C-alpha cells in the first residue's frame, strides 16, 4: 500500500496541462476533480491505517475453526468452498507480476497520437480512478473480517502465526484484482473513446487484454489461498466498473443536441404532438 501511495504522489507530479492539438471526448475540472481525487487518496490513507491496525483473529474463533476444521469448511458457501485450505505462496508471488504490469500498462496509450495531446487529462483521470478504487478497497478490507482460504490450511505448510494474523482476516475483497481491473479497463475505455473509428480487431485485442490481466491475477490469488472466488469476482466487478465509469462521467455533454415537445397540425388537418430532436452544428 505504501508503494501505491508513492505511485499516486509521483503521478501527481507528472500531471500538468498539456497543449492540446486534437479534440478530447472528456472534460476535466481541476477544482472538482482535484477535490474528488484528494478525498479518494485521503480515504485510501484512512483505509490503509485500518488495515495496518487490524487485530489478529480472536483466539476463541481460531480454536473453533481449528477444532472443527472440516465442519467449518463445509459451512462455507459452495462457490467458495473449494478454495479453503489453498496455500501456494509461489502463486502469490506470481500474481504480483501482472498486478505490477497493470499499473504501467495505461502509460502505453501515451504513444497514441489522440491521447498524448491530452496527457494531463488522461493521467488525471487515471489517478482519480486508482484513488477511487484504493479508497473503496482499503476501507472495506479494514472494516470487514473474513478469513483468507489459507487460514483453513491445517497441513502444517502454513504457519500458525500467519493463519492467526490480522492479515489473514482481510479476504474480502481482492484489492489486487480490483486495482488491476481498474487500470486495464480504464486503458481500454479511454482508448475506445479517443479512437471511435479504430479497427474492431484492434479494439477487441485491447479489451481482451483488459479482461484477461485481472482474471489472471485473480486465478493466482485464489491459488495462493489469499482470496475466495467471490472476493475475486467482486474485486473484478468493482475495479472494472470504476475504470469504465470514471472516464464516462467525464464525457463531454452534447450541448448542441436538445430534445423537446412540439405539436401542430399536419397537412391533412390532423392535430398532433411529438418529441423533436434538434442538432445544432
Automatic annotation (TrEMBL):
Parts of the chain that traverse the membrane: none
Lineage: Bacteria, Pseudomonadati, Bacteroidota, Flavobacteriia, Flavobacteriales
Gene3D superfamilies xref list: Phosphatidic acid phosphatase type 2/haloperoxidase
Source species, domain of life: Bacteria
Signal sequence residues: 1-20
Residues annotated as domain Phosphatidic acid phosphatase type 2/haloperoxidase: 126-247
Keywords: Signal
Protein name according to UniProt: Phosphatidic acid phosphatase type 2/haloperoxidase domain-containing protein
Listed InterPro entries: PAP2/HPO, PAP2/HPO_sf
Amino acid at each position: 500500500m505504501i508503494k501505491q501511495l508513492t505511485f499516486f504522489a509521483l503521478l501527481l507530479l507528472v500531471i500538468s496541462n498539456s497543449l492540446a492539438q486534437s479534440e478530447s471526448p472528456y472534460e476535466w475540472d481541476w477544482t472538482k476533480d482535484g477535490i474528488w481525487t484528494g478525498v479518494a487518496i485521503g480515504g485510501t490513507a484512512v483505509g490503509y491505517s485500518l488495515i495496518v491496525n487490524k487485530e489478529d483473529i480472536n483466539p476463541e474463533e481460531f480454536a473453533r475453526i481449528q477444532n472443527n476444521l472440516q465442519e467449518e469448511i463445509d459451512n462455507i458457501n459452495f462457490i467458495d468452498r473449494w478454495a479453503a485450505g489453498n496455500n501456494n505462496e509461489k502463486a502469490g508471488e506470481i500474481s504480483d507480476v501482472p498486478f505490477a504490469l497493470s499499473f504501467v500498462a495505461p502509460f502505453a496509450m501515451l504513444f497514441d497520437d489522440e491521447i498524448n495531446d491530452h496527457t494531463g487529462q488522461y493521467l488525471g483521470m487515471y489517478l482519480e480512478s486508482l484513488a477511487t478504487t484504493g479508497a473503496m478497497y482499503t476501507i472495506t478490507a479494514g472494516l470487514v473480517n473474513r478469513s483468507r482460504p489459507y487460514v483453513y490450511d491445517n497441513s502444517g505448510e502454513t504457519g500458525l502465526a500467519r493463519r492467526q494474523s490480522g492479515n489473514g482476516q482481510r479476504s474480502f475483497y481482492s484489492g489486487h484484482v480490483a486495482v488491476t481491473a481498474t487500470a486495464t479497463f480504464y486503458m481500454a475505455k479511454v482508448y475506445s473513446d479517443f479512437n471511435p473509428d479504430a479497427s474492431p480487431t484492434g479494439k477487441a485485442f485491447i479489451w481482451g487484454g483488459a479482461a484477461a490481466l485481472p482474471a489472471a491475477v485473480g486465478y493466482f490469488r485464489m491459488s495462493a489461498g489469499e482470496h475466495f472466488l467471490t472476493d475475486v469476482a467482486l474485486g473484478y466487478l468493482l475495479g472494472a466498473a470504476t475504470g469504465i465509469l470514471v472516464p464516462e462521467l467525464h464525457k463531454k455533454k452534447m450541448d448542441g443536441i436538445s430534445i423537446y415537445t412540439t405539436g401542430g397540425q399536419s397537412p391533412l388537418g390532423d392535430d398532433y404532438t411529438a418529441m423533436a430532436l434538434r442538432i445544432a452544428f
